[in-house]
Amino acid sequence: MKKVIVSVKGQSGPGDEGLMELITEGKLYKKENAFYISYKETGVTGMEGTTTTLKVEENRVTLIRHGTVASTFVFEEGVENISHYATEFGVFTVAVTANRIESALDENGGVVAVSYSLDMMEKEQNEFIMTVREVNDDGYSTEN
Predict the structure, then answer these.
(1) Of 77, 75, 24, which Cα lies nearest the Cα of 52?
(2) Could you tell me if residue 144 is inside a domain?
(3) What would the pLDDT profile of 42-94 be if each residue is shown by its tens digit?
(4) Residue 139 counted as domain residue
(5) How far apart are CA 130 and CA 103, in angstroms?
(6) Is residue 140 a part of any domain in this protein?
């Protein structure tokens, strides 16, 4: 398990209003044929008290959240997956369909990008790009 710096850039809906970026410390590890990236959410995302784990496999990305928000979203290109999204306001049923998944991860980090449709009551196009960089013993990223 490696300490890493995780940068998540998210876009929900059209325009710049839905832009969000989170930079935080996290952990990266490989188990069997999947890479796992885990980090704690902050007030920036509105999910403080939640831990997010991304499981990255060859043709699938699974986003797992537990804490103040609980959900599991499975992203597979062209496949609609139904999930439940539990918040302090109740549980919502959500359909997610990945339009594009790109992943270039190894034991030192890399990038995962997912473009997807989210359908709660109406379809909304979303995207996130996660960059992961290894951290040196002094706490700084190995890349500038």
Answers:
(1) 24
(2) no
(3) 888 888 999 999 999 999 999 999 999 899 999 999 999 999 888 778 888 89
(4) no
(5) 10
(6) no
Q: What is the pTM of this model?
A: 0.83
Q: How far is CA 90 from CA 30, 70, 85, 87, in A?
A: 34, 11, 8, 5
As a three-state string, the secondary structure of the chain is: CEEEEEEEEEEECCCCCCEEEEEEEEEEEEECCEEEEEEECCCCCCCCCEEEEEEECCCCEEEEEEECCEEEEEEEECEEEEEEEEECCEEEEEEEEEEEEEEEEECCEEEEEEEEEEECCCEEEEEEEEEEEEECCCCCECCC
Domain of residue 97, CATH code = 2.40.128.20
Q: Which of 117, 127, 56 is nearest to 81 (CA)?
A: 117
Please, which residues have CB within 8 angstroms of residue 39's CB and are 6 or more apart in sequence?
6, 24, 25, 26, 27, 51, 52
Domain that holds residue 116: 2-134
In a domain, 143, yes or no: no
Q: How far is CA 113 from the centre of its chain?
A: 9
Return d(Cα 56, Cα 10) in angstroms, integer.
17
